[in-house]
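User: I'll paste a sequence; please echo it back and then give the predicted structure.

Assistant: Echoing your sequence first, then the prediction.
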Amino acid sequence: MKRKIYYFITAITLATVLYFTWALTDRVSTAGQGYNGKVDMQQFGTDSGRGNIVSIQPYMLPGDYASEQSFYKTLDAYLKQAQSKGWLNKNTVVSFPEYLGTWLVIAGEKKAVFDAKTVDAAMRTMVLSNLFSFLPDYLSAKTTDKSASALFRMKAKRMASVYNEAFSVLAKQYSVTIVAGSIVLPEPEIKDGSLTVHDGILYNVSVVYRPDGKADEKIIKKAFPIADELVFTCKADAAGIPVYNTPAGKMAVLICADSWYPECYKNASARHVDFVIVPSYVEGNGAFKNPWPGYSGFDNPADIDKSDIGKITILEGWVRYALPGRMKEAGLKNGIITFLHGQFWDLGSDMHFVLVKDGETIVKQPEADASVVNLWL
């Protein structure tokens, strides 16, 4: 009997050693290559001295999230190009897209995660190689998608640290205000000018970094997550969406789907904002050409023409019912949508220029996979 117990303990010990050897080795820590293709550089308007919005629509790949260094270097390359055009000054606001920080969930993971062919395969490897960290968060999750919730909560501190450090450095390096796209985090808070997280429910949030590198204490929380997000993130109060005083004027930030709902513009209109920035993400290569399926996660607003559902394209839906159309109703004249572009394993995305300049809507197909758009105010 003692011999059987000995063999059992030996087998368990050996299996544990082998598991941790596999789980902890071959972790990626070097910088990725980044996007090295053409960047479509466009500007609209002329410099009046009132400031400008530089919208960076990067083409991102999994390797860009391997480490803090690779994430920073990828984004810095776009800012360098904007600087070379003379588009960065003390009155500049730089906008990055929705979910740009969310993919930091893979930072520091095994090489097999980055080499996977599909998102599902990459996430399975993440779970298996972080099993003892993943299981407690999975078992305590109170959301429908417990796996997604556990992955983001498990990596939250590292995600927040890399995101905060990269954007803090970039804002200070170029002396600009940065709307840092968005990131999914549990109970985020700004403490002493830096982003921190706590145990709790997940939100899709955006952070504004000042030219001194410090994060503004006000965090934007997405009020209207779509159906795919509601299974692991929580909605916020639309009335709580903040307005910021920037060197370029008063700014409101609406995260993606929030720009489709009239109540999200009420606070902005009442406080007479000068411009609206919309960090966004549209899943699927060539998705803008697909039929518009209507609203997701919440009921259609009363002013929607339901005959448009399935009839107009997704791009036409964005123009009619999101920022361009809603801004006119709210009496606002300047704004821009910043889309995330890239290829995350088998998951693609789509991107266009969609902006409003002095009440005029401008929509264009970019001539490259990545773009930097300058809108003079």
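The chain has two domains: 1-30+108-154, 32-103+164-376. The chain has a mean pLDDT of 91.
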